User: What shape does this take?
Amino acid sequence: MERRRRRTYNPPRQLELGLANIPISSSSPPPWTALPEPTQRTLTELLTRLLVSHAGELIAAPAGSDADER
Assistant: This one.
């Protein structure tokens, strides 16, 4: 009798944004200009993907639906 192999769990990869040297508090996040250039680029790409994805969901929702009701 063959045993099925278990899939190993691969947790999502954590992004390294280079924020270790910047003091951050919950009341005052670092200013955009204090972020390293690669971090600014990565965050811009992620936010762009998020907004485009959300816009695509709004366009795909039929007119008059309550898809965006909150």
